[in-house]
Design goal:
single chain; alpha+beta; Double-stranded beta-helix; eight-stranded mixed sheet; four-stranded antiparallel sheet; 20 strands; globular; TauD/TfdA family dioxygenase; TauD/TfdA-like
Length: 335
């Protein structure tokens, strides 16, 4: 079903809103994608404010240089990633590859850097190469997720928050030097102290951390309450069973590269993770990538995922408009 075009919502651009898909804007005859982005920057931001996310099709973005020019035109104060959980390649300041994650494994719904005290207000994606099958960057509206989750589960997470535990080593995941952008332990300790992260250096030179964060926030622009976290994505039960069993066997339960718990430290059971992921699925919007596509996502209003895929896939990412958790009326202590 195609909704009637609201020229105000689409700010005069050729847009449409179809059931089960994000808002889509079609363009044609664009000779310079960065120039088009500069001219339509305000209109695109208006569409994101109305719909939470928008896919722009027809820009013809062909390479990393062109993608970087578009992304840096559309967002200010691009963020350098900290506390990364998977490797990325850096193309230029603030412009990265997608997280390197096995193609046959989904990256479940999450809000980027929602475990940090500062996170991007907007995610920007540019597709240089589309996969032959799958691989969509799908989105889910976090207010709808919050409303659909069991009330008692929401109440507990509002009261306690959620706890992220991580174990860094040189064999799995991202080493601490890459996650924190330094090889100096003192700098890591300083960062942790400033960001509400408890830490422990292990005998083999590894690092274990934990941090408690709010699971529900309010959007600083309009106060809408949002389910905002990575509780399900970074939980052990979202891993493929054979991966989880291997990691527990080799590294032990406390040595998993990441895991999430209730804010009081109690285990989040597999059935709870399934409830959260099924709730995301019930309100998911998706549109397959085409080479040259651009996508803007309000990182607070919309969770995003990366679906399994076949074939080559190259999607560049930028994170703009930093937002502080303290400015989002968090419902649980920050640490």
């Amino acid at each position: 079903m195609v909704s009637p075009i609201d020229t105000d919502a689409f700010a005069g651009l050729n847009g449409r809103a179809e059931e089960g898909k994000p808002a889509i804007i079609e363009v044609s005859g664009v000779a310079d994608a960065a120039e088009w982005a500069a001219r339509n920057r305000g209109a695109l931001h208006h569409v994101v404010a109305q719909h939470g996310a928008v896919l722009v099709r027809g820009l013809g973005i062909r390479d990393a240089e062109g993608a970087g020019a578009v992304l840096t035109t559309l967002a200010t104060d691009l963020m350098a990633e900290r506390e990364a959980f998977a490797p990325r390649w850096s193309y230029s300041d603030g412009v990265y590859s997608s997280s390197k994650w096995p193609p046959n494994q989904p990256m479940c719904m999450h809000h980027e850097l929602s475990y940090a005290l500062e996170f991007p207000g907007m995610m920007l994606f540019a597709c240089l190469s589309a996969p032959t099958d799958g691989g969509a960057t799908a989105v889910s509206e976090s207010a709808k997720v919050l409303a659909a989750l069991p009330a008692d589960l929401v109440e507990r997470f509002e009261r306690e928050g959620w706890l992220l535990t991580r174990s860094y080593n040189d064999e799995i995941g991202v080493p601490w030097s890459e996650a924190f952008g330094t090889t100096h332990k003192a700098e890591v300790e300083k960062y942790c102290a400033a960001n509400g992260i408890t830490f422990e250096w292990t005998a083999d030179g590894g690092l274990r951390t934990s941090q408690r964060r709010s699971a529900v926030i309010s959007h600083p622009a309009h106060g809408e309450r949002l389910w905002f976290n990575q509780i399900a994505f970074l939980n052990q039960w979202t891993m493929a069973p054979e991966v989880r069993e291997y990691l527990v066997d080799v590294y032990g339960q406390d040595g998993l590269p990441f895991n999430t718990r209730f804010g009081n430290g109690e285990e989040i059971t597999e059935d709870i993770v399934q409830v959260i992921n099924k709730t995301y699925d019930s309100v998911t919007l998706r549109e397959p990538w085409r080479a040259g596509d651009l996508m803007l996502v309000d990182n607070l209003r919309m969770a995003h995922s990366r679906e399994p895929f076949d074939g080559p896939r190259e999607v560049l990412v930028a994170m703009g408009y930093p937002v502080r958790l303290a400015d989002c009326s968090p419902t649980a202590p920050l640490a």
